[in-house]
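pipeline: protein-struct stage 2 | run 1193 | Sodium:proton antiporter
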Amino acid sequence: MFALPQTSFAAEELLRMTTHPIAWLCIVVFTLAYIAVMAEEKLHLKKSKPVILAAGIIWALIAWLATGQGVSHESLSIAVMHDLEEYSAMFLFLLVAMTYINAMEERQVFDSLRSWLIRKGFSYRQLFWVTGVLAFFISPIADNLTTALLMGAVIMSVGQGRPAFVTMAMINVVVAANAGGAFSPFGDITTLMVWQADKVEFFQFFSLFLPSVVNFIVPATIMNFFIEKGRPAALDDHSGIRRGGIGICILFLVTIVLAVSFENFFGLPPFMGMMTGLSLLMFYTYFLQLRGLTSSRPIPVMGEGKKEEDLDIFKRVAHAEWDTLLFFFGVIFSVGGLRYLGYLEVISETMYTGVGPTWTNIAAGVFSAVVDNIPVMFAILGMSPEMDVFQWLLITLTAGVGGSLLSVGSAAGVALMGTAKGRYTFLSHLRWSWAIALGYAASIATHFLVNG
């Protein structure tokens, strides 16, 4: 999950037409599109559709306005290609990461972990902590969405007939998954954006580990006292890792090392390391096929008897989360259009210069609970305010964990609402937002205490 370094436009390259009615119309278009994104679950409309349409409309309006102001087509093309450069690097990195995750899912790596947890027969309170801790440490490697779905499946399996437990355990998983991604450059798209923008060095992100732990521990400790006692019956669930699954996990770690190495030692964009890692995965599955080790157990296919399912990397690429990939396209080009109009410059001057970076970064984290943290972080990087490493780490922390305040504030929360069948809802999460807010405040205080 990546974005190229944010190369800010020179001042004279911005259009600076924020008071023009057409510029206002662009704001309206983006607002309506994002309302549709937030209402995705109710509208059953994929989130990529409204933002892609908004991006097209915004840039068409900008072109109309700019042409009337004597701006050349070449200048407009340069502005659009600037956003394309950022998107293409992020797209390639995301595609590789998703392909690896899909390959591990096909090899039943995550199913095996879920099966092991179910068979252990933990008590409700132990399961609450085990799923939370695992979510915290898995999300820095896998994305918070995959982590939440994995832990959510465990909770739903063992929490049948215990809706109160399911609710609190899923809230805990959402908070843990978001907190775990905040201290790792690979844990969240926002952290990757900050790293790739050269605002924070790779190893400096790990100074957010303690604040992230506090963000998870505070609400979890409060909710722990409300978890019912008792132990669910151990379920007979046996799922093993398919052949080649462990090798894919190892290659995924090698690919992450390649991405870091290409950046730190060769000065190359990290997506080159990720694409190199994808080639290793392709060769690995090729040799597995030569040895006949990629087929899984026969699966019944209606009208065709038995069919062998094999590990085809191009099928894993096809199964990537294309809605998410195209959503990022719409966000980057929509926000890029507003930046070209000069809105981000105005906001930066008002907030970071007027209010100050500390309160602005804290408020941005709260705002990310309503609006996704990706456009929030992308907008801040587009502003490129003058901040030291401490403040860039602060916005990385707040944007990463702020989404936990509401169930709709992160992909993890939205996904679990869709799979929990009414047991984890917006209102049930909202009832514990006060505890999550205490963790949010405590994590910020810890950051000031440890890294200030």
